[in-house]
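Problem: given the chain below (390 residues), write out its structure.
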Amino acid sequence: MLRRFYVDNYKSLINVTFEPCETSLFLGINNAGKTNLCQAMRFLSWTASHNLDDCADAIAGSRYGLTNRYFEKDTVDFRVGAETDFENERLQFSYDLTITAPPRLDAAPTIQIVRESLKVTGKGFDDICLLENIDGRVRLLHESDHLRGTSHCVDTKSPRDTTMLNRLYDLSTNPRANLFKQYLGAWQYYSLSPEALREPLHRPNETLLRVDGGNLSSVLYFLKNTNEREYRKLIKHVQKLDPSIDLMNFHLASEDSVFMFFEDTEGRMLPARNASSGTLRYIAMLYVLTIQASFAKDVLILFEEPENGIYVGFLRDLLQLVESAKSKPQVVFTSHSPYFIDLFDDRIESIFLLKRGDKHSMLSKPDVEKVRSRLERFPLGEQHFREMLG
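Solution.
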């Protein structure tokens, strides 16, 4: 579970610390920094499995302009405090990463590592450094030797265009470092697109939904063919949204396309491409938050504006379903909808406000008692609209 995320000098984010709850909500006007904060978290997650230039090009749109344009600083800092289970014990990790990024088009085009470190606290480990990387010079702790009472580190070199976390091999000598790598790399981000949700994109054995939902029919096709029990559970929840849906069936048109159809009890079919955007969006969220979330422990999921096209009552039911699940994910939402915001009136402490300053974004939390005292006169969404949250 993520306990703390710190970022400095990533786009509009200067010296920002985010300490999430199990379910958190980002609020703010347009260009306040909500997407930048989600993007910064997604960028860091990608560094566990991609080189830095690819991370910048895919996540930020370009390796240029990664830093705040108002400050003469060419480095970006990330810090993470997280915990997850390992062999029946809870481990606490702290991970620091500093990279240098080109501030201008005429600067060096490559993003490079300045410093990277990973520490762990748990049985036999007390804030022990598992990995240290300074300008590509790396020290890796032999974890088994450490538990036997001998400090044994491996000295090696790593290319500066990628993190050492990305280059770790899954060996018995460093299981805790690899556990953190898997945890960080499993963070998920979604900004679902109505057009993409209708696409028949298919790759065999797909289980992870794409960022825009473009392979929804593919992951559901695989689910139906491999896990009938979970597929039936999903159908049961979908029927609350649309009682006429009795089945979801599929036509594998080619190696790279599969079409989804909804059927009623009499076998009448509706192509998923003709279904409402809200129905497809709800099914995608349901899959990610209840089925896909069970693929990894302590998974973090970022969802941009989940309310688009969905009746808020169904979102309330979905939130309750997620929070009662055995493998409950940690979820961060962004929203502009007063009705979705109202769902958080009994968890005001999980709301985070982003404000746009002259040169950078600012993150804060509302005064819980003041907000709660106004709820009888002004619902939570109304308070946000009237800028009464802080």
